[in-house]
Amino acid sequence: MEFSSKLLEQAVNEMAQLPGIGKRTALRMVLHLLKQPKEQTLAMTKALDAYRTEVIFCEQCHNLSDVALCEICASPARDATQLCVVEDIRDVMAIENTGQFKGKYHVLNGVISPIDGVGPHDLTINSLVEKVKLGTVKEVIFALSATMEGDTTIFYINKQIHSFEVKISTIARGIPVGDELEYTDEVTLGRSILKRVPYEDSLS
Questions:
Q1: CATH superfamily name and code, 6-44
Q2: Domain spans of the chain?
Q3: What is the pLDDT along the chain (204 residues), one digit of tens a residue?
Q4: Are 169 and 142 in contact (CB under 8 A)?
Q5: Which residue, 151, 135, 134, 71, is CA-closest to 105?
Q6: Strand 103-107's sheet: what is its strand order?
């Protein structure tokens, strides 16, 4: 792809690094930005810069947050005895959109995947185990994608916490095996939360 401007080429190359964005799509996006009012483009770049430099992880659930304790963890209306374990923030958003879960979350920030070099210690599993040890959590609900990596992660965490006095359940398999949680429609995901089953039963 030949460029008449080095600045255009640089902008396209940077945009093309985003997931699912090829150079042709990046070129369309960059040219679109050029047609917009300068203030709009500057507002977007300012928002991205603030996000990259100021966003933090909630010290309790590890969700992305603007402050030390995210809105969900800080809310007295949430049921602290129910803890939903998810892979990342996209899954929190997907479950929240169903309106069916009123407990709190624990974000692992990934799943165990030896082929990708991701082990248990690369995730927030230790802090999850510590929460369960405190005894305030009465139910741990696994809401991970129905993939080999998701199932491996559930199996590993179950081994770490099954000896404590806590109910361990997993969302119902209304979600097709191999599907990512974030792409599941809200109705199916909501029903899966409501019709969750004991983890042991999900193995049969």
A1: RecR Domain 1 (1.10.8.420)
A2: 6-44, 75-202
A3: 788 899 999 999 999 999 999 999 999 999 999 999 999 999 999 999 999 999 999 999 999 999 999 999 999 999 999 999 999 999 999 999 989 899 999 999 999 999 999 999 999 999 999 999 999 999 999 999 888 899 999 999 999 999 999 999 988 765 554 455 665 666 566 666 766 767 665 555
A4: yes
A5: 71
A6: 103-107, 79-86, 139-142, 167-170, 197-198
For residue 118, the 8-state DSSP code is B
Q: How far is CA 28 from CA 10, 16, 45, 51, 147, in A?
A: 14, 11, 17, 24, 35
Cβ count near 1 (within 10 Å)? 10
Instruction: Say yes or no: do domains 6-44 and 75-202 share a fold.
Output: no
Q: Which residue, among 139, 140, 130, 145, has the nearest Cα to 87 in the 3D structure?
A: 145
Tell me the whole-structure pTM to 2 decimals: 0.78
Angle, vertex CA 201, rays to CA 199 and CA 202, nearest 5: 65
Which helix H or strand E contains 85, and what residues bound it?
strand 79-86
- Kindly report the CATH class assigned to 75-202: alpha beta
